[in-house]
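Consortium newsletter contribution from the modelling node. Members have asked for a concrete example of what our holo predictions look like. Here is one, prepared for the copper (II) ion complex that several groups have been discussing at recent meetings.
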Amino acid sequence: MLKKSLMTYLLAFLLLPMMGNAAECKAPTCHSVVSAKDNYRIELQAASAIPVNSLFNLDVTVTTKEGKPVAGKVSLDLDAGMPHHNHGMNVKPVIKELGAGKFRVEGMMFHMPGAWTITMSVSKGIMREAANLVVEVQ
Ligand SMILES: [Cu+2]
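And here is the predicted structure:
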């Protein structure tokens, strides 16, 4: 009996943090999208809600759709714009590759309020897969 409840306690101890992580990515500071062919999940974490007209950074994590590490090396391209206004950003962000599917995107700026589309592509070898994410900023 004691052994069983200890087991339950240990399981809960191990599983709860994992469940916590899965629920962590929430707007307005975190945005998540699955790529066009379902191969990747891309999570974009900002320090605060994405501001209008001031610089911000994104911590980007690329995993499988299920949230597991991607086997092999992936690279990331990321840009953003407002398609319905036909313009992009006025700045060019720098993408730093941190390894293990993690990237730091520095120097983003959305210079007006409204719907911005973050256009990304994940490359692995010669395979390239797109992912678009619409973020409303105000
Ligand atoms: Cu615009």
